[in-house]
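User: Teach me something about this protein's shape.
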Amino acid sequence: MTRIRGGVTRRRRHKKILGMTKGHQGVRHRLFRRANESMLHAQQYAFDHRRQKKGEMRRLWNIRINAAARANGISYSKLIHGLNLAGIEINRKMLSELAVADGQAFAEIVQHAQSALEQQAA
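Assistant: First, the predicted structure itself:
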């Protein structure tokens, strides 16, 4: 059986990697070996940061909720505790959207939380 050289396969694989690293600087998009390293690192960073993004979004929501809560005369932690006591199940993303888009609805939710806190204190 004759030997088959891998030229076509290798060229396709190299072109694919070099295409993936098109925007990278220097030899990181020109030379295959360096481009391959660059691509592997870039994919790892993308994977990691997709997970980090979720925590960053939650932190942003908490900051927005805290700012809106303080504008309504209550702290973030007391608001969340009051919502739990009142049995209002609303996630932080929706609470943040209400705080930004509909201040009146957010103020009503704060009132429910404050009344639940007052009932617990009494």
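Now, about its shape. The chain has one domain: 7-121. The chain has a mean pLDDT of 95. If you'd like, I can walk through any region in more detail.
User: That's plenty for now, thanks!
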